[in-house]
Design a protein that fits this description.
By secondary structure, the chain is an alpha/beta fold. The chain is built from 11 helices and 5 strands; from the N terminus they run ααβααααβαβααβαβα. Helix 7 links the parallel strand 2 (135-138) and strand 3. 26% of the residues are buried. It is found in: Membrane.
Length: 247
């Protein structure tokens, strides 16, 4: 630390949730995790610039849209995709994850699948958010692409990401752009007026943000009950649309 002004942390997950006897040590861990550790200055400046530009138009919401191939394949969420897409996901799962028996058509029903972009839009509309709501998306490459994004964009056309708000973020080093982009997304989500994760299972990004926003005091977070909403969405897909707004 003294010589290089840096420390190396071994990989970990949910360490703050582990039991500890001394509450003062727990407070110290929280301060280290959410206060002492900070991103580099250029990341903070870019994040602040994006937040300022978003705030210049009023309040904004951030959504962590976890709908990438790796997560969908890992969770075994296949049944909403067409046969060719299912084949791609199953192949990716077989090549990248340990074999585990899953009943694929039950994963969504038990709340183990991320919300689709359209489901996010329907939830927000049911909560009385209208199409003037400005939304910042923290997302990677969405599996299924525009076919899944189009219904969401129709409901909420004012969608942004770090590239659309501040084109200078495209000038990031190609070797680090993905990591820096995620860091910028994290900070923008942290400072947003409302934050909504579409999946908060094995996702360090979403879970750290939930804790970080709580650490800094009351900041509005929307955490949909995926298991409770699953039958509503399934019924809607079968053209039984009644009751969604009350669900």
């Amino acid at each position: 630390m003294t010589q290089h002004s840096a420390i190396y942390l071994t990989p970990f997950s949910h360490r703050l949730a582990e039991e500890i006897d001394n509450p003062e040590y727990q407070r110290l861990r929280c301060r280290v995790n959410y206060h002492a550790l900070r991103f580099k200055l250029h990341i903070m400046k870019l994040s602040d610039s994006i937040v300022d530009k978003l705030r210049s138009h009023g309040h904004f919401m951030s959504i962590h849209l976890r709908f990438e191939m790796d997560m969908l394949a890992f969770l075994g969420c296949f049944d909403i995709f067409n046969p060719e897409e299912q084949k791609t996901l199953k192949k990716y799962r077989k090549e990248n994850f340990a074999e585990k028996r899953l009943i694929y058509n039950e994963r969504r029903a038990i709340g183990k699948c991320p919300l689709t972009p359209e489901e996010v839009g329907l939830i927000l509309r049911a909560m009385r958010f209208d199409n003037s709501t400005r939304i910042y998306l923290a997302a990677g490459e969405l599996f299924g692409g525009e076919r899944f994004m189009k219904p969401f964009r129709t409901l909420f056309p004012r969608l942004d990401n770090h590239s659309s708000v501040d084109p200078s973020s495209e000038e990031l080093s190609p070797n680090s752009q993905g990591l820096i982009g995620s860091a910028v997304d994290y900070m923008v989500c942290l400072m947003s007026d409302i934050f909504m994760p579409t999946y908060d299972g094995p996702s360090n990004f979403a879970n750290n943000l939930l804790g970080h926003r709580l650490y800094y005091g009351f900041r509005t977070t929307i955490r949909p009950d995926r298991k409770g909403l699953a039958p509503v969405f399934v019924a809607r897909e079968k053209k039984k649309t009644g009751g969604f707004e009350e669900a």
